[in-house]
Amino acid sequence: MREARAAFRRFWPLTRGDRRWLWLIIACVVVSALAETAAILLFADLTDHALKAGSLAAFWGPAGAWLGVAALGALVGYLGNSLATWTAERFVLRLRAKVFRHVQGLPPHFFQRHRQGDLVERLTGDVEAIEQMVVSGVVGTVAAAFSAVFYAAAACWLRWDLALATFVLAPLFLFAARRFSGRIRTASQDERVADGAITSVVAESIGNVVLTQAYNRRRDEERRLDAEARAWMRASVRGARLSEMYAQFVEVVETVCVLSVIGLGVWEISAGRMTLGQLLAFAAFLGYLYPPIRNLGQLGLTLTAATAGAERIGEILDAEPAVTDPDRPVGPWPVRGWVSFHHVSFRYPGSRRASLRDVDFAAGPGELVLVTGRSGAGKSTLSKLLTRFYDPSAGVICLDGVPLGDVPLEFLRENVALLPQQTLILNGTVRENIGCGRPGATDDEIEQAALSGGQLQRIAIARAMLRAAPVLVLDEPTAGLDAIAARQVVAPLRKLMAGRTTIMITHDLTLAPDADRVLVVDRGRLVEAGTHAELLARDGAYAALAHPLPEAVTAEPAPAPDETMILRW
């Protein structure tokens, strides 16, 4: 239970702002338990004075009081349960927003190490499991505790000796819960992991459905889903069996207790020391008493299961962002667009080799600097450093002479627009996809930025155009296009680049003749720099890229982790 206590302490602060409602819910729970206690005592009175004597006159008083107590209990119960549901959902909303906010600040390599479906499961099922521990668990514990105290006190008031005799078996509930908790926790962890795996397989298969169909992999994908589903089924069945075993054991213990009470009660009635109404009330109190005690034991199992979800959420929250806002950020200024790399080196987390080594260059407003090189040479790493997804391992990158580490992230990304290699399209209209480039843009501004054809690349270009940032980073803007489509995209690209500092990372050298400078990167180093004509004349690395020889096939270095799309077969 140490892990459960640690998880509770970690997530309990998220209830701040709702704790007054929790106190009100607890008050409703207390009143509801008192109402049920009073109803049982009124039932005893009704039995002894109305039913046993057959007196209708003695019926109305206790009956009216019982009805009033029942109405009060129903009203308070409705209020408490409704408020508890509202408070629980507010906690889920707050926790999910916290985790999602943190996830959005994590570096790209975090998402390469975790399957997308598993992260989705953590933001849904695991978040709800934590709520069962922090909010519903607290309310359930308080409700069970007060109910048990009230019913036990009432039973003792009726016959304290019989009550003490029946209380002897109560610790069996807690003992059983403790015995089952460890095994249920393991089953819950396995089930959570399997849930995430199933979601991942479905998401990956749907996302790569064309590839699946083209390579006749439908049966392979079905087998992959079947394997994950069977793992989930085994964990789910194991957890259900353990929970059912606990429930049935408790049911037997309760039956033994009630039968013992009835047997003792019959003996007491025959000796004239107890009335029928008292016996029925006493049995009712015990019938009401054991479920709260059982619930207290069941809450221990719930905490155990929720701990598995808390550990998975904690893994996300403990992941550190690669970059953060500076402690003493520089103030906003009218950015002109001067970009400079000063002896910049970088190694991805977990990688054994550097992706960039001692890179040094500068670009100014109105310039087009084209960066090219073989796959895996480190080109796209430049874009991730310039938009500060990562900070350099050595050296410094500046914007208008200001080190990027001193610039607030939001201000930096407002002034450095990235056109990524993979065109990212939101689930919405074309207008919404272009408009996200600058929130608050008018319809006229969006229409001026929009392009004909409806191609994904054109939407991305229009989005960057609407942003109007002084610095533009283009990462393979014509990737996946044929020659005709690439030429159609070049015109809007030229319009987009006009007057801006543009750094284009590409294998396509269509725009190379128009570039002010071409930089050639090889194995993380800047090996050549100059104009298109100058580099062709040197007959070096750039010339080999521009005019490759069919027989000049050489082994290329392994691509950097961020430049590899991993297909999970």
Fold and architecture overview:
The chain has 569 residues and is α/β, with parallel strands linked by helices. It is 62% helix and 10% strand. It has a six-stranded mixed sheet with strand order 6-7-8-3-9-10, sandwiched between helices. A hairpin with a 2-residue loop joins strand 9 (517-522) and strand 10.
Helical amount: 55-70%
Tell me the strand percentage band. Answer: 5-15%
Strand order, main sheet: write it out.
Answer: 6-7-8-3-9-10
Order of SSEs: HHHHHHHHHHEEEHEEHEHHHEHEEEHH
Shape annotation: elongated
- Briefly note the structural class of the backbone: alpha/beta
Largest sheet: 6 strands, mixed
Distance between the termini: 39 Å
Low-confidence segments, ≥5 residues, pLDDT <50? 551-569
CA-based gyration radius: 35 Å
How many separate helices? 18
The count of strands amounts to 10
**Mean pLDDT reading:** 78
Detail the topology: elements first, then pairings:
Blueprint: H1 2-11, H2 19-51, H3 57-104, H4 108-113, H5 116-134, H6 136-167, H7 171-207, H8 209-214, H9 218-270, H10 276-318, E1 339-346, E2 356-363, E3 368-373, H11 379-386, E4 394-399, E5 402-403, H12 409-415, E6 416-419, H13 430-435, H14 443-449, H15 456-467, E7 471-475, H16 483-497, E8 501-505, E9 517-522, E10 525-530, H17 532-538, H18 541-546
Helix pairs in contact: 2-3, 2-6, 2-10, 3-5, 5-7, 5-10, 6-10, 7-9, 7-10, 9-10, 14-15, 15-16
Keywords:
single chain; 569 residues; alpha/beta; six-stranded mixed β-sheet; four-stranded antiparallel β-sheet; 18 helices; 62% helix; disordered C terminus
